[in-house]
Amino acid sequence: MDAVSSPIGAACTAAALLAAVYFVKQRISYSRRSNVARIPGPPSRSWLLGNMMDFFLPPEYGTYEMAWQREYGPVYRLSGCLGTDRLMLSDPLALQALMHGHDFDHDRVLGTTVGFIFGKDSVIATRGADHKRLRAALSSMFNAGATRGYVSVVQKAALEVVEFLDSQEVDGRATDVCPALHSAALRIISEIVVSDPDAVSTEYSHVNAQLAELPCNRTPASLITECIMSLLPPVFMESMFAYAPGSPPSVFRQARDLGTRFGHDIVRRKLEEAEADGVELDGDVLGEMLKSVRTKGNKHQLTDGLIADQAAVLIFSGQETTASTLTFSLWELARNPELQAELRDEIVSKADIDPDPSVLENMPLLNAFIKEALRLYPAEASTDRTATVDTVLPMSQPIRTPSGEVISEIRIRKGQLVTAAIGSYQRLESCWGPDAQQFRPSRWLNGENYQAQTLGAYANLFTFWGGARMCLGWRLAVLEMQVMIFELLRRFTFSVSPEAEVKVLMGQILVPVYKNKHGKRMKGIPLLVKRLE
């Protein structure tokens, strides 16, 4: 019998619908009493959808969001579905409090979703002491010293992209480099995590790409469904993910099954090979964690199963995020030939030297370019948090409420949904200057400094988040961008294809799309690529 039509599935669906009616009524009553209702923001388009169509499904990322920020400032209210409210934050002081405080957690939908897909014991889903313990076990493999040791892995993948472009005999023809960059990013993270660049199957890689793009395909009905799910206990959401037909639940199930199998198969194979051959476990991320289990003390209290549960989230994070920003980086170089030529001159001046970290870190324009790409094209443009207790968020700039009251902090009630608008913060004029919407790497070279608060791990950017949830692999992401641009730009020129109109959409990450000659929407950016003489 099909799981969806089973009595269990039908019972879960009926229970979810009944619970939804109750929780929606409770949520609407809560929203009417919330302090966030006093914060100015754009008028709601409808009670059913609020401003959510404009926020999640604009013609292009930022069409409305940046306009709202200009009109209402870095703190404003959006109307959610079914009469709910969402607090939007790009104010650096508020984001700092959100990042470092203990009063906020993943919102219910996000927390349940990542737990379902990657496992409740994965580093992205765990909380408190368990999360701290897992991060400590993983961080030694992504610290500055460890990352320097990955240069050869990254360079090998970059040269494979070079070989791919040469095999295409590009010679000025339109070429979508996005697939090659994604393949390179996947091979890098796969070799670092499990010592095998080919460990991830085509099917698994494809499902991960689907996961990243799912939010691009939202509909009004799916937005309302997400809102209702946010009001339900996690057990109902998990039942829907497990039994509901269609996408996204079917993609969630496939990603969960493939990811779980991948992690546990890799761990089992590593242990069997080490025992059969009488050799030490590999020195990759999973191998080092497995070694720690077998050392005296096992200070992080790991188990083989717990280690296997980390593989899927590490692969997903490394596969999609950096490749997306790299694609946008090449697009910006193609759109600005003078910048491209200047950066190439800097790279060619080091052409006879291997791109080790000491060389890469001493290339001012290359690093300014990377910072600017990460500023304008953060892989994750926004992320949601929910207040776990009544709390207060400070603001760097006071705001005036519709009643005329001037406030410099916002009282947040337990359960309030808050959106960290990462992309908006990184285009905030008070932080980045009056031309914050423009791609201008020179802002990092001229001693310009608008930022008042320290955010994030790299260049005061929020791209990699910060605090206890800071991206573990941020140094690796920067290294990948440095090496990839170094190797590509000294061999090829990139220019814009006049036939491709590129748009930026907000999926799980920022996604570049264009229409092919048949009018079908495609992920990627076609560029005119030419080999240098």
TrEMBL record:
Gene3D superfamilies: Cytochrome P450. Signal peptide: none annotated. Keywords: Heme, Iron, Membrane, Metal-binding, Monooxygenase, Oxidoreductase, Transmembrane, Transmembrane helix. Its cofactor is heme. The chain crosses the membrane at residues 6-24. Pfam families: p450 (PF00067). Heme binds at C471. Its main location: membrane. The keyword Transmembrane helix applies. GO terms for cellular component: membrane. Belongs to the cytochrome P450 family. This is Cytochrome P450. It comes from Mycena citricolor. The lineage of its organism: Eukaryota, Fungi, Dikarya, Basidiomycota, Agaricomycotina.
